[in-house]
Amino acid sequence: LSVDSRSGDRTSLCARLTPRVDKFGLVVRDAPAESPWRVTAFVDTAVELTELGDVLRNLNPPPEGGEDAFDWVKPGVCSWDWWADSNHALTLEGEAFEKRLIDLAADMGWRYHLIDGGWYGRPVNGETVVLEPRSGLDLAGLIAFARAKGVGIFLWTHWRTLDSNGIEETFAKFERWGVSGVKIDFMNRADQEMVQWYEKVVRSAARHHLLVNYHGAFKPTGTE
């Protein structure tokens, strides 16, 4: 929020867009074009913000396919192996480490468990990593173990690895495996192309009934 020198005592809201990585300005778009809704709420107390929770939802069109098309979406608390031990124990103990945390999630009534970096291999000499369980890790067994406990599994992936493996192909595979969601990391950008990539990912994830947790990400600004 800054003072507008042209209007004296008035104030103005200024949006600063992130430049495109290809150096073609800020936004490349055919005309005529429409921009998303941007809403600014001014209230006296933080509590009053909660009373405006439906504003963005009411300004947006209904979900494609209607509300019932997303009745599979079940938000919930998630246990997380990296938080517990920076995932070193996954390398040393394999499934035993993950099972302890899945048991924790089940005991606490948490809906999900996240298996972070380390479940798939690392690139060698710049080669593309295939999103498959690393040697010696029984990922299918972990997913079945979690399902029996009423816990869904999230899998971590670097965004470049996901992109190089094919978003649609990877999500179709994760759906076959019985994965509940993905944590996608290290985008660290907010330019036009990355914003479009975000949307492409969530559209594909919706087709395959996968929840998405963006990490290393820009603020969601209305995206649910």
Task: Please tell me about this protein's structure.
With 224 residues, this protein is of the alpha/beta class. Helices cover 35% and strands 12% of the residues. It contains nine helices and seven strands, in the order ββααβαααβαβααβαβ. The strands form two sheets. A five-stranded parallel sheet has the order 3-4-5-6-7. Strands 1-2 form a two-stranded antiparallel sheet. β6 (181-185), α9 (192-207) and β7 form a beta-alpha-beta unit. α5 packs parallel to α6 (139-148). The protein is globular, with a radius of gyration of 21 Å. The protein starts with a strand and ends in a 10-residue tail after the last strand. The model has no long low-confidence stretch (mean pLDDT 88).
Structural class: alpha/beta
Radius of gyration: 21 Å
Fraction of helical residues: 25-40%
Low-pLDDT regions: none
For the largest beta-sheet, the strand count, sense and barrel status come to: 5 strands, parallel
- What share of residues are in beta strands? 5-15%
Strand-and-helix sequence, N→C?
A: EEHHEHHHEHEHHEHE
Q: What is the strand tally?
A: 7
Mean pLDDT, to the nearest integer, reads: 88
Shape: globular
Strands side by side in the biggest sheet: 3-4-5-6-7
Please tally the helical runs, counting DSSP H or I stretches of 4 or more residues.
9
Distance between the termini: 25 Å
